[in-house]
Every structure is written in structure tokens, then in C-alpha cells.
């Protein structure tokens, strides 16, 4: 059995590196399409102001992209160093989207970024615009393939376990690609990135307007960011509903934990706007409910029930008991692959193999399993409710707050008086961190809510880790956190430096205050 401390440290290290990495990713995803919009206007109007906007915001985009790549590379190596058995067990499926991402998307994105920065004086206007569009396509394709891989971890379709190779094997590549969970996660995640890019441009433009500098540049940037941000945040909210529906279909445990839904309610279920979950007694000490809403979000119907945590645990108990039979039969097949009785028994119970493997956290031999150990495994199948419940509500609250901000910004942009609305400009400036917080919290809900699985219902987390020493994990964790913190400080220093310089740093001579620092 693997020590719990080893598993926790491995999870913490991967979580830390992933959360650091995702401080850079959403801005890259969102900024690139704003650059496409700005340069498209430049090509259509030949107004040099829009060229300056593309180049200036592109400079900040480039800083963020470079540091984002640096933080992202180590994540893929960690699958081999910290999660060796996971890589062995599901590498044939999980590795394919990551390989395609590198060959198709990352090379395209990286090549086009080079042409974007060094091609202004070497390419015609339309040719450079094509480069910017391809750069945006590459960025989004990169996100697509990574999220296809992650979506398969949430909803493992198109694959099955082979007792011959003792690994998961792909049976339908296109089922993996068009996995509903992956597609919903992709559109929701990239839309959140668009909101992040729009908030970045909106906030910095507001700072210029509050200081009365680079006013025309800031006005045009603010207007584009307001329109793009409003469309994007509406998309996030609508597609968040779609993501909630796919979670309800594939991960009912996660949905029940997010909603602190202990009992199976008559359809359609109510939505807990606010609640105080009591996990010890499996109830809510206090709740404000909105009738019907959860049923509509989770099932898109008025008559389909959403199972509560108590019902889910009861079903999981049955699956664990069935999983014991699957593991026992698999052990027999490992000794003799021609054992026909063991093969029939395994085929009958193999859908519950992962649930049987949950018991390996507590015993080496399933002959030693007791009802008390089964109880522990059943409790493990549901993540802690309070962190899920409040994290999800924080994400939703931030989403609607940004909807209000972008709605007001767009309204006053259409009216043409936003530059005089100093309260609005200050709000836009102070709200700069909001999309990053929402993105990080969203990933916490997605990944923590999948526990105790690395592959939902298939491979438990405690069986996925490499055989490492706890001391080495402490050392590498400290090293990663220290290194990534330095990179984050460098990013913030460079972003603040060039943002303070403003478009005057382009050296075009078109800005009277280009010497501002």
C-alpha cells in the first residue's frame, strides 16, 4: 500500500504547478482574439492607431505567453515522474491528445508568434493579419487537445480495460475527441479565457483614462474590451449551464457535492443558493433554496431526479462489493489467462473494477476486507462537500459580478460617456483579479470534485502515484513553488513596467506622453 502522505504530496505538487500555470493560460487564450479584432480593424481602416493597439497589447501578450510556456512544460513531465502508474495504466489514451497538441497546435502557435512579432515590416497587412489569426487558432487548438485529455479523465469514454495487457486501451478515438464532457469543458474554459483577456485590457485602459493619458488609444481599447468581454461573459454563463448538465450526466457525485444535496428530492430538485453543510450528520444546518432550478440545470427536465449523496453512497457500496469480485477474478487471470471461469466472472463485474481497487488503499489482499473497511471506501467516494459548495458559489458570484461590469461598460461605450464615469473606471481597475480567481476556483471544483479518482470510476488516485520518497517530494515541491513564484514576480514586474510606459513605448512618435514610466 502507498502511504497517504506520498499521495497527498504528489497531489499537492501537481495542483500547485497546475494552478500557477493557469495564472498565465487564460490571458494567453483571451488576449490573442482581441489582437485579431484590433488588427482586423487596422487592415480594414488603415488607421495606425489600431496597429499601435495590436502591437502594444501584443507585447504584453508575448510576455505572458513566454512565461506560460515555461510553467506548462513541467506539467507533462510530472506524469512520468510523479504519476508513473497512471501513465502506464492509461498512457495509450491520455497520451494521444497531448501528442497531437504538441505536433499540431503548439508548433503552429509558436511559429506564428514569431512571425507576429518580427513580421510587421516584412509582411503585407493582410498577410500579417493571417499570421495573427493562425496564432489565435493555434492557441485555441492547444487548449482543445489538452481539455480533451482532461475531459477523458472526467468521463472515460471510448476505452476499456484489457486483462491481457493490464491497461486501459482505446476502442474509439472519435468518442474520446467528441466526449461531451471534454467539449463542454473546452468552450467553457476558453470563454473564461476571453473574459480574462477582456478584463485585462479594460482595466489597464481604465487606468490610462483615470490618469488622463493616451486617451484616444485607451478609449478605443476600452470599447473593444467592453464588447468582447460582455459577449464572452455571457458565453461563460450559458456554457457553464451546459457544463453543469454534462457533470450531472457523467459525475453525479460531483454535482451532489457542489450542491450539498444529501437527499434525493422529488423532481425537479431545488437549488441551494446558500447552505451550511454538516458532513458529520449528512444534512444542511441551514439552506436558502430556489425551487426547480437545480433540476433544470442538472437534467434539463421537470421529471428526472438528481440522486443525493446518501443514495449515491448506497449505490457505490454495491459497486465496491461487485468490484471485489472483479479484482479477485483479475488476480486469477494474471496467474492464468486461460482460466475461463475467472474470465467470465471478470467480464460480469469489470465495470466495477475501479471501485474494487478503492479498497487497496486499506488492504493489500481483498480477503482481508471487512465491513468497516468497505464503509471507509464508500465515504471516500464523495469529496468533502463544504469546499466544493462554497468554491462553486464563489465562481458563479464572480461570473455575475463581471457580467454586471461588462454590461455597464458596454452600455456606456455605446452612449460614449464612459470616459467621464470615473466610478465605472475605478470599478474596472479594481476588478482586474476577478477572472483569475474565478478560473482557479473553477479548476479546483473540477479536479477536487473528481476525487478519489484520477480517472473517474476507473483508477483511484492512491494507485496512480510513482514510488518516490516523501523527502524528495518535499524538496521538489519547494523547488517548484519557489521557481514559479519567481516567474510570477517577473511576469508582474514586466507587465506593470510596460503597462505604465503605455503605447509611447512603441517609439512611433504619435504619443505626447510616451516618456511616462
Keyword list:
517 residues; two-stranded antiparallel ribbon
Overview of the molecule:
The chain has helices spanning 4-21, 25-45, 48-81, 84-118, 125-154, 173-177, 180-211, 215-250, 252-258, 293-299, 309-335, 340-349, 353-357, 371-380, 385-415, 422-430, 434-448, 470-501, and strands at 159-162, 167-170, 271-278, 283-290, 453-455, 459-460. The longest helix is centred in the middle third of the chain and has 36 residues, at 215-250. It has 18 helices and six strands. The protein has a two-stranded antiparallel ribbon. A two-stranded antiparallel sheet has the order 3-4. The protein is globular and about 80 Å long. Helix 7 packs across helix 16. Helix content is 70%, strand content 6%. It has 517 residues and is mostly helical.
Helix content: over 70%
Query: What is the count of β-strands?
Result: 6
**What is the helix tally?**
18
Radius of gyration: 25 Å
Note poorly predicted spans: none
Q: Which structural class do you get from the secondary structure elements?
A: mainly alpha
Quick synopsis:
By secondary structure, the protein is mainly alpha-helical.
Write the SSE topology.
Blueprint: H1 4-21, H2 25-45, H3 48-81, H4 84-118, H5 125-154, E1 159-162, E2 167-170, H6 173-177, H7 180-211, H8 215-250, H9 252-258, E3 271-278, E4 283-290, H10 293-299, H11 309-335, H12 340-349, H13 353-357, H14 371-380, H15 385-415, H16 422-430, H17 434-448, E5 453-455, E6 459-460, H18 470-501
Antiparallel strand pairs: 1-2, 3-4, 5-6
Helix pairs in contact: 1-3, 1-18, 2-3, 2-5, 2-7, 3-4, 3-18, 4-5, 5-7, 7-8, 7-16, 7-17, 8-9, 8-15, 9-15, 11-12, 11-14, 15-17
Amino acid at each position: 500500500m502507498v502511504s497517504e502522505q506520498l499521495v497527498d504530496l504528489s497531489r499537492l505538487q501537481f495542483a500547485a504547478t497546475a494552478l500557477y500555470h493557469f495564472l498565465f493560460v487564460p490571458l494567453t487564450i483571451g488576449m490573442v482574439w482581441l489582437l485579431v479584432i484590433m488588427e482586423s480593424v487596422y487592415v480594414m481602416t488603415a488607421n495606425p492607431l489600431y496597429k499601435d493597439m495590436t502591437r502594444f497589447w501584443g507585447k504584453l501578450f508575448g510576455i505572458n505567453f513566454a512565461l506560460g510556456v515555461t510553467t506548462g512544460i513541467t506539467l507533462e513531465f510530472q506524469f512520468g515522474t510523479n504519476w508513473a502508474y497512471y501513465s502506464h495504466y492509461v498512457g495509450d489514451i491520455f497520451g494521444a491528445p497531448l501528442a497531437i497538441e504538441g505536433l499540431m497546435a503548439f508548433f503552429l502557435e509558436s511559429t506564428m508568434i514569431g512571425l507576429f512579432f518580427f513580421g510587421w515590416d516584412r509582411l503585407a497587412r493582410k498577410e500579417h493579419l493571417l499570421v495573427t489569426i493562425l496564432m489565435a487558432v493555434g492557441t485555441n487548438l492547444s487548449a482543445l487537445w489538452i481539455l480533451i485529455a482532461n475531459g477523458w479523465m472526467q468521463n472515460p469514454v471510448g476505452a476499456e480495460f484489457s486483462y491481457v495487457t493490464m491497461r486501459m486501451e482505446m476502442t474509439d478515438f472519435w468518442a474520446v475527441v467528441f466526449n461531451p464532457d471534454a467539449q463542454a469543458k473546452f468552450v467553457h474554459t476558453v470563454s473564461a479565457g476571453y473574459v480574462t483577456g477582456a478584463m485585462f485590457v479594460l482595466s489597464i485602459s481604465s487606468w490610462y483614462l483615470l490618469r488622463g493619458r493616451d486617451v484616444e488609444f485607451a478609449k478605443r481599447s476600452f470599447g473593444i474590451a467592453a464588447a468582447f468581454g460582455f459577449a464572452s461573459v455571457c458565453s461563460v454563463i450559458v456554457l457553464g449551464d451546459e457544463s453543469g448538465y454534462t457533470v450531472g450526466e457523467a459525475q453525479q457525485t460531483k454535482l451532489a457535492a457542489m450542491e450539498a444535496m444529501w437527499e434525493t428530492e422529488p423532481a425537479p430538485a431545488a437549488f441551494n443558493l446558500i447552505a451550511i453543510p454538516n458532513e458529520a450528520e449528512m444534512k444542511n444546518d441551514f439552506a436558502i433554496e430556489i425551487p426547480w432550478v437545480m433540476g433544470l440545470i442538472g437534467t434539463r427536465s421537470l421529471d428526472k431526479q438528481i440522486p443525493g449523496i446518501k443514495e449515491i453512497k448506497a449505490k457505490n457500496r454495491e459497486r465496491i462489493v461487485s468490484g471485489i469480485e472483479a479484482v479477485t477474478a483479475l488476480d486469477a487471470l494474471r496467474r492464468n489467462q486461460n482460466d475461463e471461469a475467472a474470465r467470465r466472472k471478470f467480464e460480469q463485474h469489470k465495470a466495477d473494477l475501479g471501485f474494487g481497487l478503492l479498497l487497496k488503499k486499506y488492504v493489500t489482499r481483498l480477503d482481508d476486507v471487512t465491513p468497516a473497511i468497505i464503509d471507509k471506501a464508500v465515504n471516500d467516494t464523495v469529496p468533502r462537500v463544504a469546499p466544493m459548495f462554497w468554491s462553486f458559489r464563489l465562481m458563479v458570484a464572480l461570473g455575475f459580478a463581471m457580467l454586471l461590469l461588462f454590461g455597464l461598460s458596454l452600455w456606456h461605450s455605446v452612449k460614449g460617456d464612459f470616459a467621464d464615469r470615473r466610478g465605472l473606471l475605478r470599478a474596472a481597475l479594481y476588478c482586474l483579479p476577478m477572472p483569475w480567481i474565478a478560473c482557479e476556483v473553477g479548476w479546483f471544483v473540477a479536479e477536487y470534485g473528481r476525487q478519489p479518482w484520477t480517472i473517474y470510476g476507473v483508477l483511484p488516485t492512491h494507485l496512480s502515484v510513482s514510488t518516490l520518497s516523501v523527502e524528495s517530494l518535499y524538496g521538489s515541491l519547494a523547488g517548484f513553488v519557489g521557481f514559479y513564484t519567481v516567474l510570477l514576480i517577473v511576469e508582474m514586474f514586466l507587465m506593470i513596467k510596460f503597462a505604465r510606459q503605455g503605447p509611447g513605448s512603441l517609439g512611433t512618435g504619435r504619443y505626447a506622453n510616451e516618456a511616462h514610466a
